[in-house]
Amino acid sequence: MLGAATALAGFAWDDGLPLKGDARSRRCGSTLMLGLSVDAAGRIDGLGLRAHACAIGQAAAYAFANAARGRSRTEIAAARGALAAWLAGEGPMPDWPGIALVEPALGYPGRHDAILLAWDAALAALG
């Protein structure tokens, strides 16, 4: 998990990205700012982020960033819904590459909002 958190450096913030969104965990105070660009079909083709989050939130952000390219707003929203259901114990682990990194946090509901930050910020950026 810590390795994934430190790998966020590969997705550095870029002020030039045209779409921006942010999210904040009301439970732990973690925040994430996400910048995106999309292609003509509305699929993510560039991203950068700035995370001020716990290691769990950063690991989840890494899983998001590592697999977000090529995905549409509809796909991001569906993944966010599946992730929230899984965290609430109401569904299987979502089909998102790398999300197993945060499975150890299932037993810590106070960190669940931090896990959702990247998806929430992406949805805000994609309007």
TrEMBL record:
SUPFAM superfamilies: SufE/NifU. It comes from the Bacteria. This is Fe-S cluster protein. It comes from Novosphingobium fuchskuhlense.
